[in-house]
Amino acid sequence: QVQLVESGGGLAQPGGSLRLSCASSGSTFSIRHMGWYRQAPGKQREWVATITSGGSTSYADSVKGRFTISRDNAKRTVYLQMNSLKPDDTAVYYCNLDGTRISAGRYWGQGTQVTVSS
């Protein structure tokens, strides 16, 4: 059983920044892909970004150039740096073990709320 715990959400103004963190309890963290997803009110959960075990990254077109995913294997933590935030970025953000653009893995965090509003 793997536990994922997100933190770092909150309220930001348009154009502002937030950094999300997701800490994993899994001992195999360093060899697993990690993904971020989000779900806005009334919408389906959507993929945001993935970082592979080797450090390669990929992003949804809606966040490319504004968000950066990174990882610290020693801390078993994945991050999502969100810059130039827009109201459309308002959602609950979830991290996922093995999550990619194509499919999500079995383990999810509890989610962290991000609200972008003036």
CA-CA gap between termini: 40 Å
Strand proportion: 35-45%
Strand order of the largest sheet: 2-10-9-4-5-6
Quaternary structure type: single chain
The value of Rg in angstroms is: 13 Å
Order of helices and strands: EEEEEEEEEE
| Helical content band | under 10%
Largest sheet: 6 strands, mixed
Integer average pLDDT = 96
Total number of helices? 0
Outline = globular
How many β-strands, per DSSP? 10
Helix/strand/pairing class, anyone? Answer: mainly beta
Model regions low in confidence, pLDDT < 50 over at least 5 residues: none
How would you explain this protein's 3D organization?
The chain is mostly beta strands. Helices cover 0% and strands 45% of the residues. The chain has no helices and 10 strands. It has strands spanning 4-7, 10-12, 18-24, 34-39, 46-51, 57-59, 67-72, 77-82, 91-97, 112-116. The chain has a 6-stranded mixed β-sheet with strand order 2-10-9-4-5-6, with no helix packed on it. The chain has a 4-stranded antiparallel β-sheet with strand order 1-3-8-7, with no helix packed on it. It is globular, with a radius of gyration of 13 Å. The protein starts with a strand and ends with a strand. The mean pLDDT is 96.
